[in-house]
Every structure is written in C-alpha cells, then in structure tokens.
Fold these 2 entries.
Entry 1:
Amino acid sequence: MNHATSTTGEAVPSAANAGRGVHSPDESADPRQILADRVGQLFRQAPIGVGGTLLVVALVAYELYPAQMRERVVLWFWVFIMLLIAAARYTLVVGYRRDEKRDQNPERWLRWFAIGALAEGVNWGFAAGAFFLAPGVTDVQRVFLAFVLATMTAGGLPLFSAVWWVFGLFAFGVLVPFEAVLFTYDPHGKRLFADLALMVPFLLAINMTVAYRLNQVFVSGYRLRQAYGKLTEEHAVLNQQIEQQLEELLQAQREVEASGRKLALFAERAPIAVLEVDRNATILEMNPAAENLFGYSTGELVGRNAIRTLFPPDSPALQSPAWNAFVAGAKPVTLPQTVCIRRDSIEVVCEFTLTPLVNESGDLISVIAQVRDLTQVLEAERLKKEFTSTLSHELRTPLTSIIGSLQLVNSGVLGAIDKDVADLTEVAERNAQRLLDLINDILDIEKIESGKFVLFPEDISLDALLRESLVLNKSFAERFKVRLEAHRELPTVPVNADRKRLLQVLTNLISNAAKFSPEGGAVELSMTVADGTVRVGVGDRGAGVPENFRSRIFSRFAQADSALTRQKGGTGLGLSICKRLIEAMNGRIGFEDRAGGGTLFYFELPAKQAVAQTHQ
C-alpha cells in the first residue's frame, strides 16, 4: 500500500510519496471537519439504534420471562439498566442537535458517544452472563439469546462503523462476556455451544474488519464530499466572475457600438473631409465632405489608390518611400499645404492629418485621413497681406510729410505760435508718430511672416550699442519721469547681428519698461556673459506681468487688459517683433520677475568670441 493509516482510520501520506513530492488528496482536506462529519453520522443514526435496542430488549424479556421470582428480579434489573442507557443516549443526541458549535469540538461529543456505545455493549454482555447460565433457561432459549447477541453485534456495524473503534468498543462489550460464558458452560457432552464458543472470535474479527473497511469508506466519502463542496464553492465563485466578466464585456460592447455610431455620425456630418485607407493607401470609406472636396462619389473612389488618384504624379508628399515610412512608423503625421487634384483637374491646397489605427500587437489596421481645404484660406491670407502692405505704404508717405510739417511748426522755425495752438500741434505730432510706428510695425510683421524680411548682420560691440540706446531713449523716458541707467559696468562683448534691428529691439524693451515704471523710478540695463552667450536685460519696478497674460505676451496685438495698459497706449506688436528679430539672429528672448518687484525682459545672443572674464 502507498499510504499508512492513522488510529482514526484516516489515510496519511506515505514516505514514498513524500519523497517524490506527490501530494495525497488528504492534504487538501480538513481532517477535523471530516471527523465532525463522521461524528454527525453517528448521532444521526443513534435514534435508530436506540429504537431497535428497545424493541430487541422487549423481545428478550418476553422470551426469557422466568417463573422464579429471583430470576425475574435480575431480568427487570437488566431491562431497567438498558432503559437508562437508552434514555441517556437519546438525551445525548438531543444535546448534540442543540449545540450550534458541535462541529468546533467533535472530539468531546465522540467521547460521550463512545461511552454510551460501550455501556450498551457491556449491558448486552451482562445479559449473556446473567441469563445464559440461569437454571430455568432452556437450550432453545440459549440459542435464541446467542442469536440475539450475534444480531446486535452485526447490527452495530451500520450504526457505529463511521468510527470503527466505537464499533469495536460496542462489539467487545457484547461478545467478550458471551465468549467467557460459552467456555464455562457445561452442556453435558453437547458440542453445540462449544462450537459457538469457537465461532465467536471469528465473528468478532470479521465484524471488526468490515467495520474498519466501512470506516475507510466513510472517511473517503466525507473527504470527497468536502472536496466537492470546495469545488462547488469555487465553481460558484468562478460562475460569478464569469457573469461579471460577461456583463463587463456586454457593457464594453455597448460602449464600442455607441462609440462606433458616434464616430460614424461624426465622420458623416463632419465639415472636413475624412477618408479611411488601408496600409496600401486603398480607399475603404469616405464621408460626404470628401465627396464635395474632391468631386468624386463614394462609389467612384472606394477601392482605388488614394495616392495615384488624388495627388499629382510629381508630388513627393505621399509617394511610395514616404508612405512606406509612415506605415512602418505608424505614427500620426500632418502634411501642411499639400497639392491635390479634383475630379475636374482643378488643383486644391489641402492639409492632411494622417492617424494610424493599430491593434494591440502594433499592426496597422487602417489609416484615418482628415483633409482640410486650405485654398480659400491661403487666398484670403494672400489678399489680406497685399491689402495690408499696400495700405501701409500708401499711408506712410503722407504721414511722413505730416509729421515733418508738424515738427517744423513745433520747433519754431516758422515763427512763434500761441500756446494753445502749440499744445494741439504737439498732440497731433505725437499721435501721427504713433500711427507711423504702428504702420512700421505692421510692415515689419508682414515682411517677417512672408519671408521677405532680410537681416544685415555685422560685427558690432554690444556694450556700445546699449550705451547708444540709453542716449536715444532718454527723452522718451523723461516724458514718463523715468531715468535710464546701466546696472554696473557694461563689459565689452562683440556679437554678429543686425545693428539696426538690434537697436529696434532695445528701443522696444526700453520704451515698454519706461511706460510701466513708477514716476521717479529707473530702468536698468544689464549685460552678463557666460558659456559663450551674452545676456542683455532691461528691468523695471512696475506692477509686473499679469499671470493670465504671460502665455501670450509675445503674440501679435497682445496687450494686458488693464486700465494702466490702455492709458499708456501701444500697438501690441512690439514684443512680437522683438521675439522674431532675436530668433532670426539665433538668439532667444524671455522675461522673469525681479526680486523686490518689477519685471526683467532679456534676450540672449551668441558672443562672437570668448570673453576673458565672466561679468555678473
């Protein structure tokens, strides 16, 4: 056998299995729970045993009822003891059923049950000793009594074999006294009872073997029932998880279907053209806006190659190398200002946004192409720029003449004028100059954005340019009662830049700082050099840049929404022009808060050569 057996009849893993790492099924079972189930089996059958015992006791009393008074007393005493034992066993059954925690301490209930079984067996053995040798008992009655004892022993098998040793206590209590009586009984030469005496050990051995085998059957059965119970629980949990996952899948399916309907509705009603193509650029689907843009119906384009159908032969935008690189990378791509050909051979300029759809493995499923027609937008932009440029040039010529005339009047060259007239002409000159600055700024922006702006870089000394800007902007600063000064000594730093445009940047930064500085304050110019880069700063002690305006301060026509800004005036183009000019000269521009209040605007340019000492 591969398993040893414990004293309770439960199989335990053998050494061979343990050495091989094989786990017995017992290891997954709970021995205590199995014992509780076996004890419960004993108590469930106990009422049958008590009832059968009382019936057999009644038959024995009827058959052996003696005539002599002394033997009657012994019989009634035996019956009384048997009734007491039956009552005690039934009371024990009632107590067991009422104990809600009986499975937590099965050993205690098993001990009490074993005591009751032993007491009943001993009392039947007492019957054998008391009545078998009584003088008034006939041989027929003795055979009847032997049959009853054998029947009670055999009847204990189904009642007590859930725990084999409980049956052993009962059987030993019945048969050991009976065996002793048979050996001491002298039948006057009759061999019947001697043969019975020889049969009793075999009967006991057979019954014990059967009880042990039944015990193992019970243990295996309860072990299987426990395993089945665990399997049922796990199955129930698994079913619950499956139901939950199915519900989640159904919900996900509903969401996907809803999303699909939304996407289909969006594509159908989208104002821009939407095409779906496969990895070979074959058109799979298109929306009505795409039909309007390219002049083809859906039936005409679906199944055709988008590259060969919609693009000129010499267009490099989506030719084979570019398209293959896009498919291999599977990353979103935007193709600005791409020329396409309509069905009527008219060329349109479009912006393509290609979005690849990939699965979990990273394989390309299809490509969604969003196409925006830029033809009218570009034409409108061109007309706007032409109009702005023409208007600005047409306005600048008469404005220059007006400003020159007003300056002659205000300078007194043409003679003295009344104070009231002088005030009016000064206001007119300032506003005309302001208008001319606005026109010049607009022209600069238009040139920069159109690519017509040309820089004339040269080697200049940046410190000298800063001192020149302080002189040129002194009168402007005095109008706002602000002084201009250099912060510490300016180091000599040569740079390669457009002198005129760099002076324009400095003028813009200084004028802004002067306008927003408090009266009596100072605008400080600083210059530092580190790691081959020179940094020029223009600092003020004003209110600072509002938090909600910082992200767009370098945009065109950007002005902070405040009463002070409107009072000081400005076109909102100065900082935007400064940013474009500095970046065109390979530099960068920015701003930061100053310690103690105010703002520091700065720009950085590459120094032409290393400076001997870093100035801070």
Entry 2:
Amino acid sequence: MANRCVHLLSQFTDNEKLPDKFDFPTNYEPHYLAITASKELQKHIEKTHHLDEKGRMYGVLIVKNTLDELGFLAAYSGQEKEHDSYFVPPIYNRLNPNDFFRQNELELSRINQEIETIVFSDKYVAIKELVEKYIEQSQKEIAEKIKVNQMAKKERELLRKNLSETENKSELEALIRQSQTQKSELSKLKKSWKSKIEQVRNNLEEIEAKINELKTKRQKLSKQTQKQLFKSYHCLNALGEKKDILTIFKEQLSQEPPAGTGDCCTPKLLNYAYQNQLKPIAMAEFWWGQPPATEIRKHLHYYPACRGKCEPLLNFMLQGLDVNENPLEKQMKNGKQIKILYEDEAIVVVEKPHQLLSVPGIKTQNSVLEQVKTIVKNSNGPIIVHRLDWATSGLMVLAKNKNAYHHLQKQFLKKTVFKRYSALLEGEIFEQSGEINLPLRVDLNDRPRQMVCEKHGKKAITKYEIQEIVNGKTRIYLYPITGRTHQLRVHMAHPRGLNCAIVGDSLYGKSASRLYLQADRLGFLHPVTNENLVFEMKPEF
C-alpha cells in the first residue's frame, strides 16, 4: 500500500478470517486483527507518549484497498500542534495558524486578557474593597446608633412614669424633642451612608459594565466560532455522501454538537478511509496513559466509541456499510425469566436473572414488571418500588397495591431497607472492610456511563467487606448506603475507590460472559404486618 497512513500488519497472513460485518462501534468486542493492529500501534506510541503523561484514547481501523490488500489506520483523540504523520489527519485542521478558528482564538485570548487586566487592576480591587468597607462600617455605626437610641428610649420611659403632664410639661416636651432628635440623627446617618455607598458603587458599576460588555462580546464570538467550526467538519459515509457535523446533529437530535465533536478516533478513521477508497473492516479504541480524574479509563483497556459526541456522527458515517446488530439489543431478546420467591396479598419478591430489564425499555417489553403482571392478577398492581441494572442479577420486591407501595417507598427513602450485593472483582483487595465516598453524575457525552464529580455529583456512599481471594480475584460484599446509577460499578473501578473493576463490567472494566454482581440479600418491614422480612438469593457465580 502506497498510502503513508496505511500500515501493514506484520503478523497478518492471507489465511486470516475477516469479520463478516463491521463492528457496532458503541458496543463491540475487538476482532483479533484489530487487537493485533493495536499492539503494532502501541509500539509506536511507546516512543512518543510516556505512561506518566496525561492519558488519551487511541484507535485503529482495519481497512482493505481496491486491490484487496489489508492494512490498518491509526488515530488519536483531539488535535496536536505537531501532528505525527503516522496517524490519520483530523477531519478539519482547526490548528492551522491562518484559519478563522486560530484567529478567533487569538481574539478570545485578547478579550480574556483585557477582562483579567481590569479585574486584577489596583483601581477595581480598591473600589471593591472600599464598597465592602463602607457597608461594614455603615452597618456597625447604624447598629451602635440604634443601640444608643434604644437605651435613651428606656430612660425616657422611666422618667415619664415619674412625671405628671400638668406639673412637668416642660420636662415631657424635652423628652419628646430628644426622641425626635435621635430619630432624625439615625435617619441622617442612614442617608449619609447610603449616599457614600451609592457613589462608590456607581464607580464600581461603571467598571463592571465594561467587564460585562467584554464578557458578552466573548460569549458571542465563542458561539459564532463554535458554530462555524462545526460547519467546517465535513463527514463522509460509505455511500459517498457528505454532511457537516452541525447538520448531522440538527437532523438527528435537534441540537448543536458538544465541544470536541469530530476529533475522536473513530470518526477520523472512517473519514480518512472513505476519502482514500479504503473499505473499513474492523475497529478498536484503547486508552493509553494516566487515567483522567473523573472518568474511569484504564491503561490498554479497550473502549467503545463515545455516545454523546460520536454516536450521531456514526449513525450517518456508517450508512452504506454492513454493520453488526447492537449486541445489547440482541441480548435483550434472550427471553430471560424471573423466579417468584415469595408472594402474599401485599408484595411479591422475585429473583431477577442478569440481562433482564427491571421495567420495559425502548427496544423490548420483556422485564421484571411485565413478567410479574402476567403472573399476578391484581388490578391495583404490581408496582415497581426499586430497580436493578439490566446486567445485575438479584432480589427485587414489588408492591401489589398503592398502600404497600407507599409503605415500602418510605423505607427505601429513609434508607432502612437492608441491601447486600455479592461481587467478584478483577484483582486482589487486602483491606478487609471500608467505606467509599465518591459523588457521581452522568457523563453527558457518554451516557449511561457515570463519572466522579466533586462539584456537580450527587452523594454516593458504599460500604464493603471482603469475603475471600481466589485465583487473583476478590469476592466481596457491598452495602450501598445511597442508590446512584452504576454506584457499585464505579466505586469498585475508580482509582479513588477500590481501583478494581467488577468482573464482566464492559463499561468500567473488561467484558466477560456476564457482570459478576448480584443483589443477594434484601431485608425490609412487611407493609401490612410490620414483620421484619429477610430474603437471600444464592449467587449465580
């Protein structure tokens, strides 16, 4: 192959079996040819990207040219000032010094510098401090004056009791004049301070008006630049059609793309392949280097394309290719069935197998709720009280009427329900027990993945207790104090948690035959009898 970005697979032979269809990019297991190409790429990365540097995503795309010759393309996420020609170029080079983007960036930097110059100027700082000083001083003087007036008022009231209006008219009039004088003095003091503060505030507002004017100008230019940038990224698909990413997002989601859209590995790889008449065969993306502070990314682990930035682009770019069905959707058609563990007039307790939804989804109605509905003939129920992830097996309680639902719901809200999970971790944990406290929120660019976020995350607490270590893996009991989405999975896998993913966790660790996580013990008060009920389910693994 004469193309400088196409690399030969050193271990490839003509007898290698190629995949029948292209990978479903947001949910796939890398083909061994893509893994082989990834290892070739890693040899190159070792020369330029040290492990202690900030990590990033890299990707490979197995391709075939018009002569049926195989090779692979390589890409990295983001853009670099010094582009390594080993990798495919960006879809649009926004770092070109003569480009509008770089020119606008310089103008935005100038505006930022102007704002900072004003904000940190001696004049602005002095006026702000003076306003604060005047407010503090005025409050102090006014409070002292009010206190003096109140003490004088009490003294006047005592004097009035001992004075007769006929005999001591002049003294009474003097007390009235004193009261009026003190009220007038307080009013003048307030007006005086108000005038002084307003005068300084007017000076402050003049400066802040200039700052706000610059901020508005910055926001307008930034929005205009981003929109123009999105229009400059032109994506191809296998049918030879071309669309800019702004149009793609508008058509699919009726919204503008997130920042950084178009600079991830897979869109770059596909675009270059189409531009050079190369047929995509298989792909793989992996993380190299240090993990980010919030997301869970492990060195050399393979990951799917992100959903927030890439999925809409790939929905367009894969048109014309024969693509595998989403494995998740195939698994949802597995016909898994629940087992009724306990039932009475108020509740139903079931054993949920892994890979079964708690409630109906977009792609399938098969779920715990729908199955219980066919079994329990009750017009008032069943009603879901809590849920388990699709991939998690375990115990669930459902209410058969509204009274039972409200009673159970209160127990879950007050955190009086006992919940224990069994899990198997990919590694050895030697601290016998402990607590993990890491706030969580959804990754807006890659739903349903969750991320640790101190600023916007919701409180999430998990207690744990080690059971045993067998063959380099740890059996563990988990006790979620809160019930955040993917809480146990993130708390196990995150470097600030146990830094040891649950076996089979395809989102935060490595895929396996299943997710080795089960809600194996559930305890609560019966909503009618108030009896303490405890149920156990033997782990499926």
